[in-house]
Amino acid sequence: MSILIERAYEEFANNYPKILEKIRFYSNSINDSVKDKLKKIWIDYEPTAVNKSFIAIDGGEFVKELRVGTVFLTNAEAVYGEGVNVSAIDNEIKMGVFRPGNLAKERISEIMSILELSLALRNGNKAEYILMDGSLKKKLNNGKDVEGEEKELDEIINDENEEESLKNLILKSQILISRLIQNYDGKILWISKNSKGRELFGENISDITVIESLTENPGFTLPFVHTIDEKILAKNKEVKNLEGVEISSFYIRLEKGQRVLKVDLTGRIDDEGIKKIMDSLYSVSIKGYPYPLLKVHYDVKVNKEDRQRILSILGLNHMRGNSWWPNQFF
């Protein structure tokens, strides 16, 4: 153990009472500032399982930055779930190399999003609900100053102009989201387990953290309605359909003591509609989380062994990359 780490442990031990006191203070201050509002918008509800069919979609990525460029692999999968039976039904994968630049990770993230949205469009008619991992707002990204017509994904990936490539990826994502909402409005649930949204309470911590700290029972918050901001939309005929689209967002807990999830869906929804969604999700809940989303998450995850194998196949496992040197030097 280094001298620095030893000193850090010593400082922690010496300041333990003060740290504990501050944790209690922050917890109490959260309670005082938001408990009245939470009482007004949180409704305890014990869901009853109602069997429904689900398509769940998620994506994964592997990025290796080298001095000579960035190697990437992105994948996405769609699974069909009904009750305890969940199986993969479709998938997409893209692999390539970007020349050295500053927008590789952003482009790779958009490619993954496009693969997910493509699977949702292709398979959305096979179930009663479509479960998308993450928030709708994050998927939309920011299309300000972006305009044009849709291009094929491979053409965009092979564009040497990284700024134009990223713009066209965002444009394509927004076009696919527009088509998805046009085709399946009301049956797409965008589910976030790590939302950092603070719209409800305006605290320095996320709404999810507030709700998890102050409640334990299953239940939900009243929905808050917002519209897609046209300022973030690209200039395109299909994307224009997203202008003014209403999004209902609400938080749910499916099982006592388990995590709180944020749900987005297009259109308006009332309390009874939220209860129906909770009943449906509860039928596939594992410790408060929809099992189809959990299954697909682990399917697309590129683990350490997979990464090493990919690098070995490409002969890159001994090539020096950015990871060999502290990140702050880059």
Automatic annotation (TrEMBL):
Signal peptide: none annotated. Residues 52-302 form the NurA domain. It comes from the Archaea. This is NurA domain-containing protein. It comes from Acidianus ambivalens (Desulfurolobus ambivalens).
